[in-house]
From TrEMBL, chains A, B:
It comes from Polaribacter gangjinensis. Catalyzes the ATP-dependent phosphorylation of N-acetyl-L-glutamate. It is an enzyme of class 2 (transferase). Pathway: Amino-acid biosynthesis; L-arginine biosynthesis; N(2)-acetyl-L-ornithine from L-glutamate: step 2/4. This is Acetylglutamate kinase. The gene is argB.
């Protein structure tokens, strides 16, 4: 099977113009077929603040009300996505910017209201691997923002990590897929205070111990759960680290396999 | 040759949710291959105002400075484009939202500074008909916002009428293309005060008289010049009128041919 890389960049890279440019050069130079997924980081929060839209938090969780969804659609779907696409074109990468509504590529369900009404938040239901395959087979490089739709005309704010893993799972039907989560750390750390304490390899054998001794906790926990879910559903490997994991020079990152 | 319809909607349709929904139903029901081009109307101006960005006007012409371009990218490329795409998906039309940067589909030159520096405004240089053909041949329906790029990473605000005609011209190499300009009038009017005084047919023989007696003037003049330019470069026909020109019921519109 042909190889396909799905790369997710976090907010810290998007928020800093120099970091973004450096990352996009690495992404453009990456061989083979590839897909980029980006969140929006603090840019949407900043824009909401400028517009006088206050974030609603319930039990510490952010709620996507109508006004917030509009800001997210403007910032992630417009400002961030189109600028990334234009910059990639300048780097000779034939990028095409997408939300999950475009080409009906990612269909979601609005998260059901249980204890909390999260508002316009989507949980991924179906990734159309054939629609995405048409694009990458025509040498387009899809750039997804973290927005999906419900098929009834409603856009939905959707977790970018989940979009990444769900795309990877769907594309595993016809490609050997690898996920690269680029973030502010060098990888999964043994000691959160030592940025060089990278755990180089995690698999389903070593994972339970990392959980039980609390090395994997807090924000890292859902990320890892997400990774193993992807691996169990056909993804070949997951890499976590800073943006240089896209190069052959970096040997200090976390590789996760089954 | 297969037929391809390129439809442009103006700001008045986008600004009103009911009008937009009615239009999208007509667009979704239109047979054959089709492309939609939209401007953004007053929504960008309103958003700029909310953000405290004042429009710069020189000799009555709006200047696209950096802050204004960001607003345009958010509103046209994000909010308007992604909502249209999601609504079309709900109407079983497999829309894919694009700026000219996406798939390198529309390359522009930043308008040279002569008497006026228009800022980040692009004049269309090249439409990649093959990139667009890949998409429509795969049954995607492209939805273009009025943003292009210069190939060096810079997005550019670009006139939606020009984008429409330039796409039509480029696609004429492999399709019999027709342009539909949907706007607030029933067509080109003999008497601007009589909305029913539609001139049903204009061609290069009747056009000079309409110019010399001042029937075509002001805002209509560049639109018509644009139409004849498109027709001379391979476009089959241009239709102007309200959104019902997309139906067979409406017989009150302006058809323009060579």
């Amino acid at each position: 099977m042909e190889k396909l890389s799905i790369i997710k960049i976090g907010g810290n890279i998007i928020e800093d113009e120099t970091s973004l440019h450096e990352f996009l050069k690495l992404f453009a130079n990456l061989d083979g077929m590839k897909i980029l997924v980006h969140g929006g980081g603090k840019k949407a929060t900043q824009m909401a603040h400028k517009l006088g839209i206050e974030s609603t938090l319930i039990n510490g969780r952010r709620i996507t009300d109508k006004a917030t969804l509009e800001v997210i659609t403007m910032v992630y779907g417009g400002l961030v996505n189109k600028n990334i696409v234009a910059k990639l074109q300048a780097l000779q990468t034939n990028a095409i910017g997408l939300s999950g509504a475009d080409g009906n590529s990612i269909l979601s369900n609005k998260r059901p209201v249980k204890d909390i009404d999260y508002g316009f938040v989507g949980d991924v239901k179906k990734v159309d691997n054939q629609a995405i395959d048409v694009l990458i087979s025509a040498n387009f490089t899809p750039v997804f923002c973290a927005i999906t739709h419900d098929g009834n005309g409603q856009l939905l704010n959707t977790n970018a990590d989940t979009i990444t893993s769900q795309i990877a799972v769907a594309m595993s039907k016809s490609y050997e897929t690898s996920i690269y989560y680029c973030f502010e750390l060098n990888g999964v750390l043994k000691d959160i205070n030592d940025k060089n304490s990278v755990i180089k390899h995690i698999n389903s054998e070593s994972y339970p111990a990392l959980l039980s001794n609390g090395i994997i906790a807090d924000g890292m926990l859902p990320k890892l759960e997400n990774c193993f879910d992807a691996l169990k559903n056909g993804v070949h490997a997951v890499f976590m680290g800073n943006t240089t994991i896209l190069t052959k020079e970096n040997e200090n990152y976390t590789k996760i396999t089954l």
